[in-house]
């Protein structure tokens, strides 16, 4: 079958023929409906090597960690599932028996260091192919919902959802403001989730005006980049500052912006893996403001994200590419030319 393969460090992925996977014990084979292209894949093939990045992300493997599809075959020991049913895939794959995995948080698997991979599409073969084999415990049912538009929810939906849920205490109480920095695949869905599950006013920014226009269509108030940006954001909050900031870029200037507008007892979550740094001083940050990072989410949260999707409260905007055009999807992602999450539909 054809697949998009991360073939060697520091080079763009290649389209090539690979063996169709055979589902192992406890696994199912999915006919892939859609596989989203995430900016983290760009870090995998542009930045990581033997000395930088998680050791499990060693080439070669098939890319695609935002996957949805239809059951094509059940592996040994799997029953009670029906061939043809549509599922979204919870990507992270931990040991399956530690405390973190037992609560559905494979992202923080206590045995991750000895696992040969991190997730489907991150160290083991992912969904940018005609077929994908995954553990049955990673399946989240989609029912009648469209699996192609659902694919990005597996990461571009789940990651912001997890970060927002952890920030809910900062957003409770009325008159609260959230700020979303970076309005690409994850940031656009973050705006929708904040609107759906919090009463906060959502402020949003991006260096790309078209991305800001899309966030406005989802109900955000936007503030362009530039020297007056922090003051304009503070003005929108009535001078109190932003109670929860979500930085989907994560470079020095975006973390600095986040920390310059955060409110007393506010929370800044850096989601983007821009590898930025921030230096801290007692007198220069608001009291009890928190700065944290985050990684993906739990399978239980993915069920909640699917509920919001099926209720029409999250509507992922996607651009669909054929498998033959998958490399063009990554080119456009890197060039900032996409108008929605790129989904490869084989
Ligand atoms: P994307 O390319 O779809 O979107 C990035 C957006 O940020 C674009 O709209 C771009 O114009 C904007 N941007 C770039 N530089 C900016 C700046 N200086 N100021 C404001 N906006 C800027 O990327 P994505 O797939 O949405 O991923 C976003 C980030 O999140 C990436 O770094 C990705 O690796 C990371 N990520 C992290 C996790 C996690 O678990 N922590 C999960 C998935 C993705
Ligand atoms: Zn584990």
Overview in brief:
Pfam families: ADH_N (PF08240), ADH_zinc_N (PF00107). With 346 residues, the protein is of the alpha/beta class.
- Structural class comes to alpha/beta
What is the tally of beta strands?
18
The level 1 CATH classification of the largest domain is Alpha Beta
SSE order: EEEHEEEHEEEEHHHEHEHEHEHEEHEHE
Question: Which ligands does the model contain, each kind named once?
Answer: nicotinamide-adenine-dinucleotide, zinc ion
**Rg, Å, rounded:** 20 Å
CATH architecture label of the largest domain: Alpha-Beta Complex
Low-confidence stretches: none
Number of domains: 2
Key traits:
346 residues, globular, six-stranded parallel β-sheet, 25% strand, 26% helix, Rossmann fold, alpha/beta, binds zinc ion, 11 helices, binds nicotinamide-adenine-dinucleotide
């Amino acid at each position: 079958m054809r697949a998009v393969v991360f073939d060697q460090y520091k080079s763009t992925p290649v389209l090539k023929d690979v063996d169709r996977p055979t589902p192992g014990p406890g696994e199912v084979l999915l006919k892939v409906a859609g596989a989203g292209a995430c900016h983290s894949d760009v870090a995998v093939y542009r930045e990581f090597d033997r000395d930088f990045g998680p050791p499990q992300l060693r080439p070669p493997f098939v890319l695609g960690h935002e996957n949805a599809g239809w059951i094509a075959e059940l592996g040994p020991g799997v029953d009670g599932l029906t061939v043809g049913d549509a599922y979204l895939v919870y990507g992270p794959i931990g040991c399956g028996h530690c405390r973190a995995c037992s609560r559905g948080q494979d992202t923080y698997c206590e045995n991750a260091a000895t696992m040969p991979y991190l997730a489907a599409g991150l160290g083991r073969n992912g969904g940018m192919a005609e077929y994908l084999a995954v553990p049955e415990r990673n399946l989240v049912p989609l029912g009648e919902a469209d699996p192609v538009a659902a694919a990005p929810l597996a990461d571009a939906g789940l990651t912001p959802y997890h970060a927002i849920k952890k920030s809910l205490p900062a957003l409770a109480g009325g008159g609260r403001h959230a700020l979303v920095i970076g309005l690409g695949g994850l940031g656009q869905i973050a705006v929708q989730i904040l609107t759906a599950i919090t009463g906060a006013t959502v402020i949003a920014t991006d260096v790309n005006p078209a991305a800001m226009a899309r966030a406005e269509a989802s109900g955000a108030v936007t503030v362009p980049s530039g020297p007056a940006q922090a003051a304009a954001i503070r003005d929108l909050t009535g001078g109190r500052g932003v109670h929860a900031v979500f930085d989907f870029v994560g470079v020095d200037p975006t973390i600095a912006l986040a920390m310059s507008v955060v409110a007393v007892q506010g929370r800044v979550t850096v989601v983007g893996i821009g590898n930025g740094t921030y230096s801290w001083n007692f007198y220069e940050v608001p009291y009890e403001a928190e700065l944290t990072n985050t990684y993906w989410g739990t399978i239980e949260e993915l069920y909640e994200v699917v509920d919001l999707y099926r209720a029409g409260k999250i509507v992922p905007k996607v651009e669909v590419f054929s498998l033959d055009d998958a490399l063009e999807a990554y080119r456009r992602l890197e060039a900032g030319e996409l108008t929605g999450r790129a989904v490869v539909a084989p």
